[in-house]
Amino acid sequence: MIQGTSSGAGKTTLVAALCRIFSDKGYRVAPFKSQNMSNFAYITPDFEISRAQAIQAIGARCDIVSDLNPILLKPLGNYYSMVYLNGKRYKKMHAKSYYEKFVNTDGIKIVSKSLKTLQKNYDFIILEGAGSPAEINLQKFDIANMRVAKKANASVLLISDIDKGGSFASIIGTMSLIEQKYQKLVKGFIFNKFRGDINVLKPGFQKLKNITKIPVLGTIPMISLNLPEEDSLNAKPKEIIWTKKNILKIDNELNNLAKIVESNIDIKFIENLLK
User: Fold this and answer.
1) In angstroms, what is the C-alpha Rg of the chain?
2) How is residue 191 annotated by DSSP?
């Protein structure tokens, strides 16, 4: 499972890359994000899920199905969202009701069912977390990070956006705020969006390992991607028409992304975690 020290750390992109890398290696692989908040969806006559999971599915070369993203939240403002379950419109919910009355009852059941379905049909499931696992005010309502990782018996890789600064502190802070029973799930760190000489970072990697006993698996350089973005504070996403031409463009971009990621992180280490 790929989790991040913050939103926008690179979770979605890394999952897409790993899906393509392991698909190229001959594995049957699928992405999974239990809960996503986005106003940009992949829509069919039968269901809709976040377009991020649809792009990841293109990377994995698997069918795009509702189980890839069983809960989709479309924000409406004033703490309300339109909730989609298994690709179908459910109802408008206030954040308070969603957290206190839904996530730990129907929500976790829906997530668990979709995850089990995917696990039966694929060799590897590459899970994506949401936001950060260190949101201590929301940990008891978690159905997207550590609780799901535990349920899936998944190892966790923690990614951080070093371009924003403070990555070492963010990683150590995140580890200190994760519940102790979940800390052992974290097997490696990845730095994303790095500019400059990697040798400048290496002393920090060793200090980080000395403190956490967890290795850094690689550093992904800052790259320009021509993939549709999700709606976030730093993105101005555009709608996409899912034509064969546009899907081919996404497919080619995923090939380029996979090559860059594979050459900069320890894929063999990750493959061993998945087996």
Assistant:
1) 18
2) E
pLDDT of 20 higher than 80: yes
User: What domain count does the chain have?
Assistant: 1
Specify the amino acid at residue 74: K
Which tokens is 22 given?
A: 């392991």
Is residue 9 predicted with pLDDT exceeding 60? yes
**pLDDT at residue 237, rounded to an integer:** 65
Q: Is residue 240 packed enough to be buried (19+ CB in 10 Å), middle (13-18) or exposed (0-12)?
A: middle
The C-alpha atoms of residue 50 and residue 130 are separated, in whole angstroms, by 13
* Distance, CA of 158 to CA of 168 (rounded, Å): 12
Domain containing residue 89: 2-274
Per-residue pLDDT tens over the stretch 239-269: 788 999 999 999 999 999 999 999 999 999 9
As given in the structure block, the two tokens for residue 67 are: 């189980």
How far apart are the C-alpha atoms of 33 and 257, rounded to whole Å? 20
* Phi, psi of 201, rounded to the nearest 5 degrees: -85, -25
**CB 2, CB 160: distance < 8 Å:** no
- What's the pTM value of the predicted model, to 2 decimals? 0.95
Residue with the larger pLDDT of the pair 227 and 182: 182
- Residue 47 contacts residue 57 (beta carbons within 8 Å): no
CATH of the domain at 41: 3.40.50.300
Rounded Cα distance between 71 and 28, Å, is 23
CA distance 142 to 148: 8
Helices (H) and strands (E) in the chain, counts: 10, 12
The structure tokens listed for 162 are 């070093």
